[in-house]
Amino acid sequence: MQKTFTALTLALIAAAPIGAQDKPAPALAPSEIVAAAPKADWTTIAPSDLLVMDLAPDAEGKPRRVVIQLMPPPFSQGWVGNIRKLAAARFWDGTSVNRVQDNYVVQWGDATEKKALPAGLAKVPESAYTISHADMTKVWVGGSSEAEIRDFFAKREKSKVRENILAIRNAIGGDSYALQSAPFMGWPVAHDNLDFEARAWPVHCYGMVGVGRNLSPDTGTGAELYTVIGHAPRHLDRNIAVVGRVIEGIEHLSSLPRGTEALGFYRTAKERTKIRSVRIGNEVAGLPTYEFLSTESGSFAQYADARANRRDAFFIRPAGGADVCNIPVPVRRVK
Amino acid sequence: MQKTFTALTLALIAAAPIGAQDKPAPALAPSEIVAAAPKADWTTIAPSDLLVMDLAPDAEGKPRRVVIQLMPPPFSQGWVGNIRKLAAARFWDGTSVNRVQDNYVVQWGDATEKKALPAGLAKVPESAYTISHADMTKVWVGGSSEAEIRDFFAKREKSKVRENILAIRNAIGGDSYALQSAPFMGWPVAHDNLDFEARAWPVHCYGMVGVGRNLSPDTGTGAELYTVIGHAPRHLDRNIAVVGRVIEGIEHLSSLPRGTEALGFYRTAKERTKIRSVRIGNEVAGLPTYEFLSTESGSFAQYADARANRRDAFFIRPAGGADVCNIPVPVRRVK
């Protein structure tokens, strides 16, 4: 917690006593590394992979837009397909935010639970909460024959990518919930082992979006969604589908009044925030283009190291590690 | 994210198909373990260890009280002493909440940075961000002679307490930021090693309260405070003093509108939430008595295991671990 406003802090740095100059110059802050990352290290997000939720305007009439990036293959695609159908059917228009539980989640959908669902929604099995390393490899390599995989890894072995990935994993260190966890192909992913038979799954970090469900064996359709607004509730990993993340406007959800009923549900209908519309990004006129910092890039490796070892001016002691949810994948609007 | 309201979920359990009865009965949820904990497993918090902050009422005229428990010895006592002096001097009355940064912190104090501080505030050294295991042992044992320590551990060896502590540590597993971390004497504490020479420090979990400061070697007086409202920013550990935690009313801070300036500072004075008064608990008429679940108790060990391995009805796959900030110390009002 930098105590003072930025201008004053800069003034303090300028006025530092002579002795302070003996120390090495402070390293770049993670935000400065991101700002300096070359264009080639950014990946464009297709508008068709965005879900744009417009809430009713706030008390002062200001618009409240929440932009969600949907998870790419091979993760959670059964539910993501349902979400595309629900948006196409305008299912969420006129529904509401029904639950805000402090340090946990904000949840939205049809509070009446009576609205008809569009036809053709998939019933996704629980096994799809995780995916095999074999399936991950197929998507990553862009092929699945032994020759293709061998060729991919042989090339990678000599590439900078491998070095970047190892540096990122090294920044993370221990994890109470998985053998290993790291950003992978743009998303926080955990692994129960490291071999070809291992399973991987997306992680419930701040801002991640998941699918509400009833008791097992129900897995939810995707009609009821939530986002994390507190410390990563990773006990939900592998118990519930993760389908995306909020990349802009989470403050419109995280700053809503907390519900006072059990689990943070609102007591009365009037406490609920109305949802005007939810659309896939390519249906939204004038939507900016978004990019995320490629998690296999040199800039990301440098950023991860800086998140794990803060050496910028404010810090006196680098932590030596950062958990996967403390290395959020940077997203920006393209200017 | 339980999809439905509690009543409906219970109805679903009652209506479960016959096949579902083959499964073992669901285990207790962490909240049920806490509700069932015997009186002996709770520790009363002295009113003199509470800091009560009354914000101006909200838009509907409802009171907004935030109750903070101050850290006990041997942690951060230089700053805690300053905070007591600041409260006695009514320093915060009429100041404001000046910064709300999403997924990070809410910060309050004198926005003008010109208000006079009371006389006699300690200037606490950076070395006090951590404490030695030797000092921790003194407080824990209630003595520091070799005989006293030997006697304490000999008794503990045969006691249930040791078993509870080992069970709690076992529930936590890996940590990216420390060799080990666990709730200890009621607080989340991390350790850089396990021997008598090791250092320990309080952890920046959700709701923990810390001391704003300027650049090193400044360590802050305690006049500028913040609380964590997002994923545990543990890179701040050992870089800044942790002095307490919000035990009630954090929603009055975490749901405030986010500031739009750098670091979440508010752009205009009128966006700031006014602080009416901040008092030590024994100056506040009618304050309830609060207790925390003793972190060396059998109930806490059972609770920690249940946080790490959810086996209650909603869960299909226990995580196998929980990080220290996902095992928050339960606090309750005494009825």
Secondary-structure map with pairings?
The structure is a homodimer of 335-residue chains.
Chain A: H1 6-14, H2 30-36, E1 42-45, E2 50-55, E3 64-70, H3 77-88, E4 96-100, E5 105-109, E6 131-132, H4 133-141, H5 146-157, H6 160-172, E7 180-184, E8 187-191, E9 199-202, E10 208-211, E11 225-228, E12 242-248, H7 251-254, E13 273-280, E14 290-293, H8 298-308, E15 331-333
Antiparallel strand pairs in A: 1-14, 2-3, 2-13, 3-12, 4-5, 4-13, 5-11, 6-9, 7-8, 8-9, 10-11, 10-12, 14-15
Helix pairs in contact in A: 2-8, 6-8
CATH class of the domain at 47-113 and 174-291 in chain A: Mainly Beta
Largest interface: A-B, 78 and 78 residues
Distance between the termini of chain A: 30 Å
CATH architecture of the domain at 47-113 and 174-291 in chain A: Beta Barrel
Mean pLDDT of chain A: 92
Identify low-pLDDT runs of chain A.
Answer: 4-21
> Given the helix and strand composition of chain A, which structural class is it?
alpha+beta
Order of helices and strands of chain A: HHEEEHEEEHHHEEEEEEHEEHE
Oligomer: homodimer
Work out the radius of gyration of chain A.
21 Å
Strand count of chain A:
15
What fraction of the residues of chain A are assigned to beta strands by DSSP? 15-25%
CATH superfamily label of the domain at 47-113 and 174-291 in chain A: Cyclophilin-like
**Roughly how much helix do the residues of chain A carry, as a percent range?**
10-25%
- CATH fold-type name of the domain at 47-113 and 174-291 in chain A: Cyclophilin
Biggest pleated-sheet summary of chain A = 8 strands, antiparallel, barrel
Strand order of the largest sheet of chain A: 2-3-12-10-11-5-4-13
Describe the global form of chain A.
Answer: globular
Q: Number of helical runs of chain A? A: 8
